[in-house]
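Appendix B: a complete holo record

For completeness, this appendix reproduces one full record from the ligand-bound portion of the collection. The bound molecule is NAP. The inputs are the chain sequence and the ligand SMILES; the output is the full three-dimensional arrangement of the complex, encoded as structure tokens. No fields have been trimmed.
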Amino acid sequence: MDNKKIAITGGTTGIGFACAEYLLKAGYNIIITGRTKVNLDSAVSKLGKNAFGILSDTSSLSDIDQLVSKIKNEFGKIDGLFVNAGIFKAMNFEGTTEDLFDETMNINFKGAFFTVQKFIPILKNPSSVVLNTSIVIFKAFADTSVYTASKAALESIAKVLNIELADKGIRVNVVSPGITQSPIQKKSGMNDEAIDNLLKHFSTTSPIGRIVQPTDIAPIVEFLLSDKSQVLRNEKIIVDGGTTM
Ligand SMILES: NC(=O)c1ccc[n+]([C@@H]2O[C@H](COP(=O)([O-])OP(=O)(O)OC[C@H]3O[C@@H](n4cnc5c(N)ncnc54)[C@H](OP(=O)(O)O)[C@@H]3O)[C@@H](O)[C@H]2O)c1
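The structure of the chain with NAP bound, as generated:
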């Protein structure tokens, strides 16, 4: 039987990359995307055989069209999609500019929304879509207002898509990671001391006594993409070591 094929948006670093590694080891073929060529090339070469990279900015609808057409030409229909590409830039509510609002919503929500829409023709019946949101939906964190809104918006569409796409055999579930150590913290604009404090706080207050790693998220995503979860719809799995209990 052919290997199952999964596309991961933003699979070059952090959670997306860990999921790509895990899925490859489990026997899947993987297509990862990213918008930075050097990161994409490095990720594909680390992942090795059965991993394919396509440069694609998720905030650009024409990039998503090209991504879908490349996947269709190269692989035909695929078995699953992990909608993972996302950004976080720390900013308080009063300091949030229109540019930051648009950038965050365009990548985390609009891009994710149209990614799922444009992938429909290349998703098999049955297939699985997993949306990456965040625990910020359940617990308030300062300096995350627009990020929180983008993730809450993304989570909100899962139930609607499960109704509308059911007859195409497409099911949609959600993974909500807790604070996970990844390059996102450095890119957020936080300084090294603030990042250290954040990671230390979540290591010491978490019931698991350490910070969540991208490799902790990967098996949960594989479960949601696989037939093991075939009757789940609009399920939200919080992967945070218990910090939001
Ligand atoms: N780390 C956490 O604490 C945490 C917690 C909850 C949820 N999440 C979510 O998990 C997802 C992955 O985050 P991460 O922590 O793994 O961070 P990360 O290491 O920064 O990974 C982000 C990935 O998304 C890609 N990306 C960003 N903007 C893109 C765009 N416009 N088009 C295409 N790809 C884009 C990045 O590629 P480039 O290198 O090319 O930019 C990278 O591959 C995000 O949606 C994030 O919100 C993270």
